[in-house]
Write a structure and sequence with these properties.
Layout lengths: L2 H16 L3 H6 L1 E8 L5 E3 L1 H14 E12 L5 E12 L13 E13 L2 E9 L1 H10 L1
Parallel strand pairs: 1-6
Antiparallel strand pairs: 1-2, 3-4, 4-5, 5-6
């Protein structure tokens, strides 16, 4: 898969995220996708990712802006940088109490691509920044 195809795949993936089209996101993933949750554990498989999406939908409403996509020449590795605009809907276990607080947070992802699908997704954002925003809101 060349760079252009990887960028197109990521464009579909992030457009699906912004449309809250969870099936569209899942369609971009390999069956055995490895998802490195920010400051959490690695979960493997599309079914685990689908559970993660359901959890996120319950606790957060988010849109991404300023999306910048990058890929290696061979398309096997990629990165995305964006700004998350969100609302904290329901208290997430181990995190501050939710009351509809809003937040704006820079974030990024590192990805591996295999056979035309995302095979690894490693997310990063500054959890301390997020917590300061929702506690201070």
């Amino acid at each position: 898969m060349a760079r252009a195809e990887t960028i197109a795949l990521l464009s579909r993936y992030y457009a699906a995220f912004n449309a809250r089209d969870w099936q569209g996101m899942l369609d971009c993933l390999a069956e055995d996708v490895a998802h490195d949750v920010n400051q959490g554990e690695r979960v493997v498989g599309k079914a685990a990712f689908e559970q993660f999406l359901a959890h996120m939908e319950r606790c957060y409403a988010e849109q991404l802006t300023d999306i910048v996509l990058m890929a290696s020449d061979d398309g096997a590795r990629a990165a995305a940088e964006f700004v998350v605009h969100g609302r904290y809907l329901a208290t997430d276990e181990g995190l501050p109490e939710a009351s509809g607080q809003t937040y704006v947070l820079p974030a990024g992802a590192f990805l591996a691509i295999a056979d035309g699908r995302i095979s690894r997704l490693t997310m990063y954002y500054n959890l301390a920044d997020w917590e300061a925003q929702v506690i201070g809101a």
